[in-house]
Design goal:
Radius of gyration of chain A: 22 Å
Radius of gyration of chain B: 16 Å
Strand order of the largest sheet of chain A: 4-3-5-6-7-8-9-13-12-11-10
Order of helices and strands of chain B: EHEEHEHEEHH
Strand order of the largest sheet of chain B: 2-3-1-4-6-5
Structural class of chain A: alpha/beta
Shape of chain B: globular
Number of domains of chain A: 2
Number of helices of chain A: 11
Distance between the termini of chain A: 34 Å
Oligomer: heterodimer
Largest interface: A-B, 17 and 19 residues
CATH architecture of the largest domain in chain B: 2-Layer Sandwich
Shape of chain A: globular
Structural class of chain B: alpha+beta
Number of strands of chain B: 6
CATH class of the largest domain in chain A: Alpha Beta
CATH superfamily of the largest domain in chain A: ANL, N-terminal domain
Number of strands of chain A: 19
Strand content of chain B: 35-45%
Helix content of chain B: 25-40%
Largest sheet of chain A: 11 strands, mixed
CATH topology of the largest domain in chain B: VC0802-like
Distance between the termini of chain B: 16 Å
Chain lengths: ~425, ~140
């Protein structure tokens, strides 16, 4: 039995998967209707009762949840159980600065970590592996998710968190890490740093990398594989559906399997909300089938992708999901962190700046850069350089607090940032993120 | 006495400085003295011009301009002249925030422009020590 963490479910027949999904969705909708007043109201408004949902075919009758619902319901509005049953929160940024807080019971964490364990085993992970997790630990789901998955597999886990590349490399080499988990851009950066230190790709013991939290191309995959001497695999997830491990690529590097026994994916037309047939490109929507604390139904991810249930050579039967091909909103993913232009606007207004700004995102040496051009106002001008620079620093600090990543702020003269007729060009993304 | 200096925000991009200078040049305004404080992203162009109000109006249309009180102190053409001025200010507990120098016609001589944290105090102590400063009227003439 090779490379399955939970072979019975990972290779279950389509009929069996459907049976499990149908059984779970009936229970889950009842659970949500009874415990989540916010969603009960949405269902009542739409005239849908829990009894109307008899199988996953009926999911399309349910109302959608969006990021703005999560903001409106912050912090407890979508909680599906008593807080005393919850053991953890994780968090991600929201559209205008109010963060999304997801709650977990111990059972939720176990299921999430099992999904991450499936991802690790799928790329060849066993209890003989040394798994170096350099996703951020803390509120970000990347570190805790893969850390938990690595424990479940029984790998020796190196809970490195992100940053401090010299230390990453020291532990990688001294402790013989075999599996690397981080963002693809950080993996590329580690690869470059190893080369700079004079290491060849064969000098490390790595065999596989599980990379996610940001879009990346096939070209980037090949370059990471070459620089580290590994096979690189994509993992996908979002805080709203627990975190990484919603889907991940098998050892064959064919498209990721979504863990359909826990999440039910749909592809919709982002404009009309209509469910699209299998194989069509549209917005990905997830319904959590068995989460207790944060049971989101029909959550619109805004990620554009394609689903297919075609047979896979790896033997897994769960639905396959393409890498996200873009977004149906204006969210940017910068160094693995979700950034909304509206958050930047909120900071500018709070700090007394003009809301006329431009964001330039680029990738320099595999590292995302964020430059924010802001118009200085006459009130803030000083004829002393130090005072203006202090204002720049203060604004950078406020941005860092809001966004979770540090931008470079550039002050510009008033009326110099291009104002276009109609839609303002607020964001210039010079990165190549999708194939 | 204090005179008005224009402080102009200029982005550190090709063509920005020349555009700024051209604006006042085309209006026939003469630059008496200038300095520029530069950073990676922007500079602050400090100007003392023959017609401050007119230049301020023109430059306001293209960037941020403020009028700043500075003092132009006459320096004798001999060793120790600048040191003497700074000693007077320092002894009076007055801080110099920035300064630059210029020479006018032979008749008017050389000057150091100082931006201080206490303009009134500096004016007084310089006058007490008999150090000559330029007036607004002088600027139009030199």
């Amino acid at each position: 039995m090779a490379n399955y963490f939970q072979p019975e479910i990972e290779t279950a027949s389509r009929e069996e998967i459907l049976r499990i999904q149908n059984e779970k969705i009936v229970k889950q909708v009842k659970h949500v209707y009874e415990n989540v007043a916010y969603y009960r109201n949405l269902m009542d408004e739409k005239g849908v009762k829990p009894e109307d949902i008899k199988s996953v075919d009926d999911i399309k009758k349910l109302p959608f949840l969006t990021k703005s619902d999560l903001r409106d319901a912050y912090p407890y509005g979508l909680l599906g159980t008593d807080l005393k049953n919850c053991v953890r929160i994780q968090s991600t940024s929201g559209t205008t600065g109010k963060r999304v807080v997801a709650f977990y019971t111990q059972a939720d964490i176990d299921l999430w970590e099992e999904c991450c364990a499936r991802a690790i085993v799928a790329v060849g992970g066993t209890n003989e592996d040394v798994c170096q997790v350099c996703y951020g630990y803390g509120l970000f789901t990347g570190g805790p998710g893969l850390n938990g998955g690595s424990h479940k597999v029984g790998c020796l886990t190196l809970p490195m968190s992100s940053g401090n590349t010299d230390r990453q490399i020291q532990f990688m080499m001294d402790l013989g890490a075999t599996i690397l988990c981080c963002t693809p851009s950080y993996a590329a950066y580690i690869g470059e740093s190893l080369a700079e230190k004079g290491y060849k790709p064969e000098d490390n013991k790595l065999k596989a990398g599980i990379f996610g939290a940001e879009p990346w191309t096939e070209e980037m995959r090949r370059s990471i594989e070459k620089s580290l001497g590994i096979k690189a695999y994509d993992i996908y997830g979002l805080t709203e559906t627990s975190g990484p491990g919603v889907s991940s690529e098998p050892g064959e590097q064919t498209p990721a399997h979504a863990n359909e026994d826990h999440v039910y994916p749909e592809i919709i037309d982002p404009d009309t909300g209509e469910v699209l047939p299998e194989g069509e490109k549209g917005e990905l929507v997830f319904t959590s089938l068995d989460k207790e604390a944060f049971p989101l139904l029909r959550y619109r991810t805004r990620d554009i992708c394609v689903l297919t249930r075609k047979k896979c050579s790896c033997g897994r039967t769960h639905v396959k999901m393409s890498k996200p091909m873009g977004r149906s909103d204006d969210m940017l993913i910068i160094r693995g962190v979700n950034v909304f232009p509206s958050q930047i606007e909120t900071v500018l207004l709070n700090e007394g700046y003009s809301p006329n700004y431009q964001i330039v995102v680029d990738r320099v040496k595999n590292n995302d850069t964020l430059d924010i051009y802001v118009e200085l106002t006459p009130e803030q001008f000083s004829d002393k350089v130090a005072e203006i620079q202090a204002k720049e620093k203060a604004l950078e600090g406020a941005m860092r607090t809001m966004l979770g990543i540090g931008p470079k702020v550039h002050l510009a003269a008033p009326k110099t940032i291009v104002r276009s007729e109609g839609k303002a060009v607020r964001v210039i993304d010079n990165r190549k993120l999708h194939d | 006495m204090a005179i008005k200096q224009l402080s102009v925000f200029v982005e550190n991009k090709q063509g920005k400085l020349v555009d700024t200078v051209r604006t006042i040049s085309e209006a026939g305004i003469n630059i008496r003295a200038m300095s520029i404080a530069d950073t990676k992203d922007f500079g602050i162009l400090r100007l003392i011009v023959s017609d401050t109000d007119k230049a301020c109006g023109l430059l306001s249309d293209m960037s941020i301009v403020t009028k700043t009180d500075v003092i132009a102190v006459k320096m004798d053409d001999k060793a120790g002249a600048l040191c003497n001025i700074l000693t007077v200010l320092s002894d009076a507990g007055i801080n110099v925030e920035y300064m630059y120098a210029f020479t006018a016609s032979a008749e008017f001589g050389a000057y150091v422009v100082v931006r201080v944290d206490d303009v009134a105090g500096a004016e007084k102590v310089l006058a007490d020590k008999g150090l000559a400063t330029l007036s607004v009227e002088d600027i139009a003439k030199i």
